[in-house]
Specification:
alpha/beta; Peptidase_S33
Length: 347
């Protein structure tokens, strides 16, 4: 009887020492939205982060949404020279999953400093800018996910190839790993899918470098953008997307991307960019997102997911280049699953 009593006392003692569910530290919804003890409470999450360059110090705009100690996603917008506004729809999906995310306008973009110096617009300098932003925001391998879309995907790949040890996860959204292969896809696959007369007229204006002709923009809007950039009638394009287009820095865009929408051509600095042979160097968990109607070849993106050491492919069957808008169900469920799987260690 004494042995039984002693055993019960031991069990009771062990139970009393075990943390109960209400005592365990958890990230609650209240914690997620709290600005308490944050250094950006005064500005509601906005920070102007100083960036050191060979041409001096400049500031870039960032805004954090939410708090999560292990899931923080830094968003790299497209362009180059566009803005974070194209990611506005993330507000509709990340908060209920309690994923912290950071909007960010790269140097030269609308909400950040806009120096007038072409020498600043290189992938190498942008990579160092992202690294300085990471440090300023306290992101590290325990929490730092980097999501880059379009040009942001180029920047994300370049950053990961140099700094993947600082990362927890990489998301490459709607960007191939080779501009020459992107050019071939645009000119040999997408262009010929258009009405032959329309494509002929567009190519004639491109050959004549008549890019400022209103007719050029009209044909692209009505026959290309609504098929391969965002699959909605122009009058239904989200206000945030129109805002990022209106806020674009054309100096950066033309210098790096060029005038043509059928690949990167002319004297654009990204014309020969290609890291497809280096993807095998990436060991960080990686999600690659492709879409059926994208300006980028979805088969190439699927191939990329198999080239990296620890990859997953997310296919958006209804999406185009901005598949975060025209295939939201597949896009966000896939991104959220990836972040949660990496965070839980099940990826």
């Amino acid at each position: 009887m004494k042995k039984l009593t002693l055993g019960l006392l031991v069990i009771a003692f062990l139970i009393s020492c075990k943390p109960q569910p209400e005592q365990q530290a958890e990230n609650t919804s209240q914690d997620y939205w709290s600005f308490e003890n944050r250094d950006d409470q005064f500005t509601g999450g906005i920070k102007m982060i100083p960036i050191q360059t060979e041409k001096g110090e400049f500031k870039v705009w960032t805004k954090r949404v939410g708090n999560n100690p292990t899931k923080k996603v830094l968003l790299l917008h497209g362009g180059p020279g566009m803005t974070h506004e194209a990611f506005s729809c993330f507000d509709g999906y990340f908060p209920q999953e309690e994923i912290e995310y950071i909007y960010y306008d790269q140097l030269g973009s609308y909400h950040s400093d806009q120096p007038d110096d072409l020498s600043l617009w290189t992938t190498e300098r942008f990579v160092e800018e992202v690294e300085q932003v990471r440090q300023a925001l306290g992101l590290d391998s325990s929490n730092f996910y980097l999501l880059g879309q379009s040009w942001g995907g180029i920047l994300a790949m370049e950053y990961a190839l140099k700094y993947q040890d600082n990362m927890k996860g990489l998301i490459i959204s709607n960007m191939m790993s080779s501009v020459p292969e992107y050019n071939a896809y645009a000119q040999e696959v997408l262009g010929p899918q258009m009405d032959p007369e329309v494509y002929k007229e567009i190519k004639a204006m491109e050959d004549a470098e008549d890019f400022t002709n209103p007719r050029y923009g009209e044909l692209l809007m009505n026959h290309y953008y609504t098929e391969h950039v965002l699959r909605l009638p122009m009058e239904e394009w989200p206000e945030a997307v129109m805002r990022t287009l209106n806020h674009a820095n054309n100096q950066i865009y033309v210098h790096m991307q060029g005038y043509s929408e059928f690949g990167i051509t002319g004297d654009a600095t990204l014309k020969e960019w290609d890291v497809k042979d280096r993807l095998k160097e990436l060991s960080v968990p990686t999600l690659v997102i492709g879409a059926q109607y994208d300006t980028m070849d979805p088969k190439h993106m699927e191939w990329m997911a198999g080239e990296v050491q620890n990859g997953r492919y997310l296919y958006c069957p209804n999406g185009s280049h901005l598949s975060q808008y025209d295939d939201q169900k597949n896009y966000f469920s896939g991104v959220i699953d990836f972040v949660n799987d990496v965070d839980s260690g099940s990826f």
